[in-house]
Amino acid sequence: MSRGWVRKLSWFRREKKSKTLAPTSAPVIAIDGPSGSGKGTIARQVAEALGFHLLDSGALYRLVALAADEACVSLQNSDKLAELARGLDVRFDSDERGGERVWLNGADVTDRLRTEETGAGASTVAQIPAVREALFERQRAFCRPPGLVADGRDMGTQVFPDAPLKVYLTASAEERAKRRHKQLKDKGLNVSLAALSRDIEDRDRRDSERTVAPLRPAEDARLLDSTGQSIEVVTQQVLDWFAVLSFFVEGLWMGSNRIIAPFVVMTVGHRM
Q1: Are 201 and 173 in contact (CB under 8 A)?
Q2: Number of domains within the chain
Q3: Phi-psi region for residue 88, left (φ > 0), alpha (ψ -120 to 50) or beta?
Q4: Residue 153: inside a domain
Q5: Between vectors from CA 88 to CA 85 and to CA 94, what angle results, nearest 5°?
Q6: Other C-beta atoms within 10 Å of 103: how many?
């Protein structure tokens, strides 16, 4: 891997961004990005490498959409959807191969969770402020020692604005459509690549234009384009960034109201 890094180390004092947020008890790596950017895969790889807990925030919104479907609740009924979000009976588990399994109301819904229909429902549900508020503290509660890797669309901007490492992972729309097409074909599903491309473009527009927590990089996020990159290369880049922070900042996540932290500026070639 050709690194071509130019590192410049300086120090800055960072205030807590919200007086209402209690300090996290463990380090958080927040990975945000659009649909199909690979953030879920990279988050799992990073969490496994570090022995950290994993939060797939998108799964929670998908679960709300699924719960609404099972309860025959309209996706336009914000009050009922918020009620469902607060009372989700959900369990995350692993199968014998280490893959994620998700249980809702005692039933394994892993396969249903990843359908295009559920994804579209989740995108609609995620625009509802009452649902986002209902899931906010639930997501924050995932943070516990030794650490957390959280992936989603607003982890670094809304849920964990105090995360020491924020990554905004992206890829071209064409690349993301091809990845999703391969995933679905591997599951034996016959889908149109053109239709997937249109769906990704529509979802990008909904996520970026919504009034509540729109999809955007945090101001202090590190941008990482995964187009044409292997899983291993992208994962290693995130681990390297975290290693630099961990090396220079002992006790970064000890819960103080003020944090003294290094800011590492890296100039990385488009191809790592």
Answers
A1: yes
A2: 2
A3: beta
A4: yes
A5: 125
A6: 15
Same domain? 90 vs 135: yes
Task: Examine the domain organization and report whether 116 and 224 are in the same domain.
Answer: no
Q: What is the DSSP string of 210-223?
A: -SSS-S---TTPEE
Kindly provide the b/e burial profile for residues 34-58, where b requires at least 16 CB atoms within 10 angstroms of the residue's own CB.
bbbbbbbbbbbbbbeebebbbbbbb
8 A C-beta contact, residue 149 and residue 55: yes
Residue 30 — φ and ψ, nearest 5°? -100, 120
pLDDT per position as a tens digit, 164-196: 999 999 999 899 999 888 888 887 778 888 888
216-30-163-158 Cα dihedral, nearest 10 degrees: 40
Give the DSSP H/E element, type plus range, for residue 260: strand 258-266
Cβ-contact 75, 117 below 8 angstroms: no
Are the CB atoms for 166 and 33 separated by under 8 Å? no
Q: Are residues 63 and 97 in the same domain?
A: yes
Helices of type H across 156-222: 173-186, 193-209
List the domain range (segments joined by +) for residue 9.
1-52+146-171+215-248+258-272
Token pair listed for 70: 């099972």
Each residue's pLDDT tens digit, 32-80: 999 889 998 999 999 999 999 999 998 999 999 999 999 999 999 999 9
Q: Nearest Cα to 57, choosing from 173, 129, 148?
A: 148
